[in-house]
Amino acid sequence: MAEINWDAIVEDYLNGFTASQLPPSLKLPALPQAATMFVQKANDENTPIAELARIIETDSGLTTELLKYVNSSFLGLRSKAKTVQHTLTLLGRRPAKMHIITTATQGAVRAKQSKLINQASFWNSTLQKALFARQVAGLLKADKDLAFAGAMLQDYLLPVVSNELFDDYLEFVEHRDEMPPVVCEFEQQKFGWDHAFAGAALAVRWHLPADLVCCILFHHYGLKILGHPQLGRTAVAAVAVSAMLPDEIRQNRLGLEQLAKLGQKWSAFQLGALAEAVDREHEEVGMGVRNAFPLSRLCKPILEALVPA
Asked: Which of 4, 17, 137, 260 could anchor a disulfide with 147, C-beta 3.0 to 4.6 Å?
């Protein structure tokens, strides 16, 4: 497979759309300075690990979260890290960068009020999607770390825009069965842009890696992404498949039914088994919130309906 020019794909699909074209009334989140500096420096492979560690150590929140993550049972690393530099060495430059980006972005969004979305539940369901995306990336033999990070960030801007444009999104939620099947279609009709475009454009402003931006940009492409000549076997496709899972505002009304039928065409994709694997991992990693809606429970009635009587 030819090497993918991620920057060219982002430029082509955004087609000149930038974060500055969003309504000025939108109060967009900002990454912490330490995260911004870290991303810019980490993009240069020649930057020493020690220099990257010093940047993270200027932010106590990022330092704490990074140490907590690398020492968690979820990763299962034999060595325990006591310093940021040791943490970055254990994780590796790229996985560490992905974790710092997702942690900093979540923190920036959590700081914003959301009248429509319960943020604890939102990030819990986002984690479910991220674990699912990593499972699908394994089936595709794609980058699991990128799939996880991309899925964690796919909807990061949704709590912000749904709060700032509350009446419009409330209409979508209250009349969901009368609305387009995918939230991005509703947003395009209402605003002329959607949260995937907006999130990708803001990620470009933050200098996030282009492959991660692609995960955000294409996450509501549904199953058609699997036929994309460049992206169909990448982490971007895994994220798009994960976006079809249910959430509290039902972004993809028909997504779970479509995933249940996917196994009939793609034998390796067994939704029930994938859901059980996600639930096991979800229990291990946690987020301080009880997983009240295990994925296997959500999938069960859909899968049972496909079984011939």
From this structure: 137
